[in-house]
UniProtKB/TrEMBL annotation:
Residues 543-567 are annotated as: Disordered. The keyword Transport does not apply. PANTHER family: PENICILLIN-BINDING PROTEIN 4B, PEPTIDOGLYCAN D,D-TRANSPEPTIDASE. Residues 546-556 have a biased composition (Basic and acidic residues). This is Penicillin-binding transpeptidase domain-containing protein. Residues 369-648 form the Penicillin-binding protein transpeptidase domain. The lineage of its organism: Bacteria, Bacillati, Actinomycetota, Actinomycetes, Micrococcales. Pfam families: PBP_dimer, Transpeptidase. Residues 170-326 form the Penicillin-binding protein dimerisation domain. Belongs to the transpeptidase family. SUPFAM superfamilies: beta-lactamase/transpeptidase-like, Penicillin binding protein dimerisation domain. The chain crosses the membrane at residues 20-39. It comes from Brachybacterium kimchii. It is found in: Membrane.
Amino acid sequence: MASASSPSEPTPTRRRRGPIIAGISAVVVLALIAAFFIVRDRAGDGSKEAKALAAALASGDFSGVTLTGTDASGAKKEREKALGDLQDATGKAPSVDVSKVEKGDDGTRTATLDWSWTLPHDAGTWDYTTTATLTEDGDTWAASLDPSELAPDLTADETVSLRTVQGDLGSITDRDGDDLYGPREVRVLGIDKTQVDADQQQDAAKKLADLLGIDADTFAASVKSAGEKAFVPALTIRESAVDDYPLGKAADVPGYHEEKETQPLAVTKDFAPGVLGSLREATKEDIDESDGKIVEGDMVGSGGVAAAERDSLVGTPGVEVVAADPKTGKERKLHATDATAGKDVETTLDTDLQKKATEAIADQDSASAVVVMQPSTGDVLASALGPTGQSYPVGLVGQYAPGSTFKTVTALSLLRAGDTPDTTVECPATASVEGRSFKNADSMDKSLFGKMSLATAIAHSCNTAMLLQYDTVSQDKLADAATTLGIGQDAPEGLSSAFMGKVDPDDSGVEHAADMMGQGRVLTSPLSMATVLSSIQNGSTVRPRILADDDSKAPEADNPLTEDETSQLQDMLHGVVTEGTLKSTFGDVKGDQIIGKTGTAEWTDENGDAKLHSWVVVAQGDVVVVAFVEDGGYGATTAGPIAKEVLQDAQSEG
């Protein structure tokens, strides 16, 4: 009988199962651990995603970024809402870099972003740091666009913008340092729509407009189109002119409101507007067209010295970057730079003479101008405009046929061709060139027609005598004489839009003949004709100057004036005063020798009516005066008395 196995001995099967199960468990655990780390490795450390986010924040293109809570389009809109105004003002996108990515205890990643904006006006950069949180999303990291990622502590209701902070403005002064254009106290008068019921606003606007002497319908339309809480300006007046307006009655108009401000203005409204120019706050159009060079709050120069010397007058603006909540009106200053005050700019103008020149043409009902120049220096002492056409400085930028004042140039070209003041010339009543007929002025003494000396022809302004010399002087020689006397040179610093005259060297035939008598296609301005006579008085080419520190030299002419040419020209132009067309006006004026020339240029207005430009150019001592009236009749009759009054005023000042 077989014996039974001992119960204490395990069977072979039980001995093998334990190690197998334990081995399987270990493999499963190891596999899970490996899978965990494989997933982690696939997601990475977030650096790549952080860099993509930084690039998107800089450019506004979020198409390459995984986002939570929004999509690429929504993120772009949020960025534009918060930073669009700032980017428009700076003119370029910011740079955004990732300085580090850190692991959080909750498994997120925190990216530190370094921002840098380049500011206008050489104000440097605005640098700051924000952070962005990245959360794991499968095999990548997703970003949520929080406002605080865009700017320090920015909230969802805030927007970031930049504004210019102006320092104290400099002034434009006269030759003695007296203020001509600078900050002045003003009152801005208008309607505050928050202080008047909507159904009364139109009536209030029209009533105020009538009291202030402005167009009622235009102002009423401005009030209607403005925002519900807007203050709508109607008129800005100088503090010194407050008594000229019925402000007591204006105060009774519903919604009437005044604001006191400081604005850059001329010492008087009509003081040399074409010379001084103006400064004004930049408009939306200025900003939009500047490619980021102009921002809100900037001062823009317009015309004359103000435009040329804008940077000196304004100084270096500061900037402020602010975060504002439009719902509450509250704002925070995020960054600021200090402004530098502007400097004064000295001109060559003589204040007393400028006022007297303006008074001398105050009664003219046609566009008119007076220019006074110092021949020895080229300094513009006065540049006055008549009451018509103040916005168009005809004395500086006007382009007119100079008429017989151009015979100063023709005389020089004839001297260079071999003529002398005693050369005999023909002065018929009429003359024809290539079928075109020309005549002398109706005011010329008919007993003079016939043979006469060149000096007499200049003195009595014989047109036909000059015309018939067109074969003696070529057009290029006429143009060369004009260049010698300063015509065609570059405009002076500070008066960049000034017209310095034009004589086309290629004119021929009848045009060349007409040019000889200052008609044809010859064009000048009162400033350029002042330069011509100043060059003759000075004995060398003169360059006009309006800025006291302008040390530019006169252009070197290919054929400079000689002493003999200067003497002969001065003698002939003195004959205009002693025996010619200026005798009745200037013959009795005491003091140094006077030289001058009248001019009458024919033109046709838009209605086809024949008109006359009236010119006179005169010089005495170190003063040259040019008087011009656009629709003024004969030079001696209209412009002559104006020029005489101003010349005597100039001489009385010493």
